[in-house]
Amino acid sequence: MDIATTISLGAILVSLGSLIVTIWATRLSKRSLNHAKEIQNKAEEKEFERLRAELLMHIADDRRVLDKTRIEIGTLKVDFYAEAQLIQVIMRDYTNLFTNYLPRVEASINQLDILWKEVSGWSKDKSYRELMDAKAVLYRSLKDDEVVYDSGIYKINEFKAQLEVARQRVSQSGSRIADC
Q1: Quick check: is 165 in a domain?
Q2: How far is the C-alpha of 88 from the C-alpha of 99, rounded, in Å?
Q3: Element containing residue 28 per DSSP (H, E)
Q4: CA 51 from chain center: how many Å?
Q5: Is residue 9 part of a domain?
Q6: Are 114 and 138 in contact (CB under 8 A)?
Q7: Beta carbons within 8 Å of 86's beta carbon, 6+ residues apart
Q8: What is the 8-class DSSP label of residue 122?
Q9: Going by C-beta distance under 8 Å and a sequence separation of 6 or more, which residues neighbour residue 133?
Q10: 122 lies in which domain range?
């Protein structure tokens, strides 16, 4: 073997070694890339689930407040219909709390229940866009429900005040009749 052949064989061996190292490095890089993508996907899933859980907590909190309002109005309604007929007649202009307002509260609760079922049933294939759309719907709903709650508290307090006035009027008229 002459020196040119030996050098050529050495060069071929070095080239083959370089090819093997390059293939090995490429496979290692590909595995690293796949691992990084997997970690990124898991982080995105975790963040999505965190945001979804946060959204569900907001829905539950809002529902709890409206449910409390509904129960308070329902209790007030039962107490009102247990009052004397004369008091019910005097208060007839205030009963829209039961006929108009209470159904609005119940409708808001039903909307929250529907949103809860939708969001809690989401699979992992939902996108951030859908999550943000649901958050926007919930935000609008929360603002509407704040108005419902605030006006409900006002209406409940007003009804209680007027009920007390009606009771006093009836008791005063009853004591006048007894005095005669």
Answers
A1: yes
A2: 14
A3: helix 3-81
A4: 10
A5: no
A6: no
A7: 170
A8: -
A9: none
A10: 48-179
- Residues 132, 45: Cα–Cα separation, whole Å: 15
DSSP letter assigned to residue 100? I
Q: How much of the chain is in helix, strand and coil states, percent to nearest 5? A: 90, 0, 10
Going by C-alpha positions, the residue among 4, 108, 130 that lies closest to residue 55 is: 130
Q: Is residue 18 assigned to a domain? A: no
CB neighbours of 139 closer than 8 A, spacing ≥ 6? Answer: none
pTM as predicted: 0.70
Closest C-alpha to 119, from 140, 137, 136, 134: 134
User: Residue 151: how many CA atoms within 13 Å on its side-chain side?
Assistant: 13
Structural domain contains residue 72:
yes
Print pLDDT tens along the chain (180 aa). Answer: 799 899 999 999 999 999 999 999 999 999 999 999 999 989 988 888 888 888 889 889 889 989 999 999 999 999 999 988 988 888 888 888 888 889 988 998 998 899 889 888 877 677 778 878 878 877 887 888 888 888 888 888 999 999 999 889 888 876 555 454
CB-CB contact of 119 with 54 (8 Å): no
In the structure encoding, which two tokens stand for residue 101, read together? 């307002």
